[in-house]
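Hi support team,

I submitted a single chain yesterday and got back a structure, but I'm not sure I'm reading the token output correctly. Could someone confirm the output below corresponds to the sequence I sent? I've pasted both exactly as they appear in my results page.

Thanks,
R.
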Amino acid sequence: MEKIAIISDIHGNIPALEAVLKDIGRRDITRIFCLGDIVGKGPSSDLTVDWVREYCEQTVRGNWDEFISEESDLEVVKWNQAVLGEHRLQYLRELPFSIEFVMSGKFIRLFHASPRSINERIQPWDDHEKRLSLFESSEWCQQQLTADVVGYGDIHNAYIQHLNGKTLLNVGSVGNPLDLTQSSYVVIEGEMDSATLAPLNIQFIRVPYDIELAIQQAVATDMPSIEAYIKELRTAVYRGLS
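Hi R., thanks for writing in. Yes, this is the structure output for that exact sequence:
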């Protein structure tokens, strides 16, 4: 049996990423997949990119990764681009869309938001057909197969559901959780690269981290939208709801 840690939505928060990586290490897990949104919102996009490149075996592109790496007159983009530098921006531009593999007889597909787009937002309370569509493939996917298990990030809200005999999960957010004020990630365990049905375990893990340190690091910079960022870290309430 092999274990893979799946993380997502770090958003430039180094104290949160450090806490999660330490927890993964304590569990003797050596394979880490990242589902994007490495950058933005927080003050340390440069460091989070460097750490993801060092520790994550595979990483997909998130909407913020694309947003920040494109030309724009927006203050948040210009600020993050100055922090990142061109070589990190190029890394973000080259990230793939999905991660696909077989484990314990199940075809598993991981992506940032949906199989169709890095910007399509689907919540656990959306209608059944909309959630079921997450198992479909698209031109962006590596294989034109319907998935048995789908994992994604984007919404910062960890959950698992079983739909029509398939498993849908959101891994939540490492650096900007919007359900609990603790970092979230998922461990999936099974027989890697095996088409034979076998036990498959999916575990959700919450990790406390030093929120006030993350806030201090943000305050020490001139980053944009700092008050909204601080409020999200302390309350786990999305700024768009305030």
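A quick pointer for reading it: The two ends are 44 Å apart (CA to CA). Let us know if anything else looks off.

Best,
Support desk
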